[in-house]
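Consider the tokenized backbone below.
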């Protein structure tokens, strides 16, 4: 009866394949999608067709015969209202049988995998928003089609194949007769669902194409009914070759969406032409939201490399990894067209482009930070954790990156620059102080900050995983070293307390001095030292690291990774002016058991304040019970 039924009876050589589990999940989502902007499917199919044309252009550099007598890339959309079909056809690279099974039966893109993970965790209503915001690829066709046929012939091959599926768990692949296939490239036939009928109307399709795909670098034509003449919708002129003044913001945004696979607005657009020793054009975008693959372990960038408008690869490292959030392309006039994708990475020409492009991106970020600080802090919010990787990877640009860096601090709300912090130095302050850890809320309440707060000294709160690494290796900013507040003696005595009169700190009472010695001997090997603290004002105790080597946060990371032996034991600092300490110090020798319990409990308290556990849970509870019993008078 319908085309669908006809296709279901495949030739005897047809093979049924199950979809990979992830694909089945994605399809489930597409088939049942209530997402209202289903038209994104067209953008995805056109993007794939354009990719296929660009890959052919690239392969044809080494093998010109692949182009045959049809050298001009083109994408053609065919509408057939009577059959309720929409066809997207390209004369690109095409797919062999195996490539079809691989490309249309599995999910290779890490971005799509990440999308699936996100959507698993998402609420139902958020789900549809996610589909709209992210490129979900070929399978989005099943939002509008009850069956999809993909008929393809690989460039240079005789055989052609049909992939066919209703998106319900399996797909079939079978050979097709030469006459039923494009002479080269891929034809995607959508058997539209009843409510997607409007995609057989010329106005609808034209509008969607102009809106979402107006800047793909391949011309797009439309045939609005069988037998009609093809009309051009888009000429495929490369946007980046036009001058900036000839491009509207909307055109930039469109292009950004098609090149970046992001569907938000770019936070910053950087379009420039470099001349001189290297002749190249760059069009870069800083996305307005975090791409899914930002923290993938491979930390790969996605900048596309073109040579004289021919797409070469998106695998070349055009920008350093700490700029991997930047999307877009570089089009070089100097690189040889026949450079192999494998060799390109080592090309000194690419090295020079990388250098120039990196400086340009950092320069534009600096300018933005100066001229539009709010727009810049939005970018920092999204990508600061990635940019900071450059602080230990790119020594040449470390100072530039430090100047860009923004921090949460104890000094003021919002983001602060190091310049702001140095300008707010207190008299006699010589170092930029920081506190590192993984939870900013816990950092804010850390006892280590008390003495600094009491003196109005601003402390950087570092809660990104990378912070521990760059800050240790950094020689400082503007001649001021970085210093952890959890490390060494705090050197705070010379900085006056806020609102205090200029009085020297009172001498320690003898009983307190003796108590410190007592605690030291009670704890024995567990600590390197017990000493009076000038960083504590409210809390009784805290742990600090010695002056040399890692600070407390890094010590804990290293210990967790088994990289730190017993060598690093903390120093226990005790607040000699704290009421509890003064009272404990006044206890007589007949209270030895209580004093010993107190010594251990104070040590455990300091550990708990850092987010750790008591040194020995059983002994801890026994000691606590003894002390409480004593209070309760039992
Ligand atoms: P992506 O385009 O990000 O790789 P898709 O789901 O859109 O993901 O497509 C999956 C794969 O299918 C592509 O990588 C490509 O190998 C293949 N493919 C899709 N459409 C075409 C086409 N028109 N021509 C050639 N290959 C295609
Ligand atoms: Mg795609």
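A designed sequence for it:
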């Amino acid at each position: 009866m319908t085309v669908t039924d006809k296709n279901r009876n495949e030739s005897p050589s047809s093979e049924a394949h199950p979809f990979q589990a992830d694909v089945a999940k994605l399809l489930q989502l597409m088939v049942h999608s209530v997402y209202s902007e289903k038209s994104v499917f067209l953008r995805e199919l056109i993007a794939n067709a354009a990719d296929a044309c660009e890959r052919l252009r690239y392969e044809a550099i080494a093998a010109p015969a692949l182009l045959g007598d049809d050298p001009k890339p083109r994408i053609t959309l065919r509408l057939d209202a009577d059959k309720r079909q929409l066809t997207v056809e390209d004369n690109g690279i095409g797919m062999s049988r195996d490539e079809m099974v691989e490309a249309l039966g599995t999910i290779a893109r890490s971005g799509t995998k990440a999308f699936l993970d996100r959507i698993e965790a998402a609420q139902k209503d958020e789900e549809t928003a996610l589909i709209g915001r992210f490129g979900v690829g070929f399978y989005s066709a099943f939002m509008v089609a009850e069956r999809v046929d993909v008929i393809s012939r690989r460039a240079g091959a005789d055989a052609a194949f049909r992939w066919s599926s209703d998106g319900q768990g399996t797909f079939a692949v079978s050979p097709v007769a030469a006459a039923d296939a494009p002479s080269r490239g891929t034809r995607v036939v959508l058997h539209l669902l009843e409510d997607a009928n409007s995609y057989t109307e010329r106005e609808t399709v034209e509008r969607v194409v102009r809106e979402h795909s107006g800047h793909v670098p391949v011309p797009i034509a439309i045939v609005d009914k069988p037998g009609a003449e093809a009309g051009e919708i888009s000429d495929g002129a490369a946007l980046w070759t036009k001058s900036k003044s000839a491009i509207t913001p909307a055109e930039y945004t469109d292009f950004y969406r098609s090149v970046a696979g992001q569907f938000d607005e770019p936070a910053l657009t950087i379009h420039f032409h470099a001349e001189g020793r290297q002749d190249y054009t760059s069009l870069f975008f800083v996305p307005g939201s975090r791409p899914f693959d930002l923290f993938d372990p491979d930390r790969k960038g996605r900048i596309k490399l073109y040579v004289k408008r021919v797409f070469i690869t998106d695998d070349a490292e055009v920008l350093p990894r700490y700029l991997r959030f930047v999307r877009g392309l570089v089009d070089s006039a100097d690189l040889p067209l026949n450079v192999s994708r494998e060799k390109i990475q080592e090309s000194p020409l690419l090295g020079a482009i990388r250098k120039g492009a990196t400086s340009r991106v950092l320069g534009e970020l600096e300018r933005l930070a100066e001229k539009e600080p709010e727009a810049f802090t939005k970018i920092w919010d999204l990508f600061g954790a990635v940019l900071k990787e450059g602080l230990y990877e790119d020594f040449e640009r470390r100072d530039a990156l430090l100047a860009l860096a923004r921090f949460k601090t104890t000094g003021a709300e919002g983001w602060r620059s190091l310049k702001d912090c140095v300008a707010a130095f207190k008299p006699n302050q010589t170092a930029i102080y920081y506190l590192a850890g993984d939870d900013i809320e816990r950092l804010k309440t850390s006892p280590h900050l008390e003495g600094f707060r009491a003196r109005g000294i601003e402390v950087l709160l570092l809660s990104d995983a990378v912070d521990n690494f760059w800050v240790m290796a950094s020689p400082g900013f503007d001649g001021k070293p970085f210093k952890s507040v959890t490390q060494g003696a705090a050197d705070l005595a010379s900085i006056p307390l806020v609102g205090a009169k200029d009085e020297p700190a009172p001498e320690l009472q003898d009983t307190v001095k003796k108590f410190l010695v007592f605690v030291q001997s009670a704890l024995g090997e567990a600590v390197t030292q017990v000493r009076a603290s000038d960083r504590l004002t409210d809390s009784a105790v805290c742990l600090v690291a010695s002056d040399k080597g890692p600070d407390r946060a890094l010590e804990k990371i290293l210990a967790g990774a088994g990289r730190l032996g017993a060598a690093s034991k903390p120093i226990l600092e005790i607040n000699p002016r704290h009421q509890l300490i003064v009272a404990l110090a006044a206890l007589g020798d007949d209270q030895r058991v209580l004093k010993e319990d107190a010594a251990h409990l104070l040590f455990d308290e300091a550990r708990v304040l850092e987010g750790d556990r008591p040194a020995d849970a059983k002994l801890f509870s026994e000691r606590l019970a003894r002390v409480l019993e004593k209070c309760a008078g039992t």
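Residues 239-377 form a domain with the Ribosomal Protein S5; domain 2 fold (CATH 3.30.230.80).
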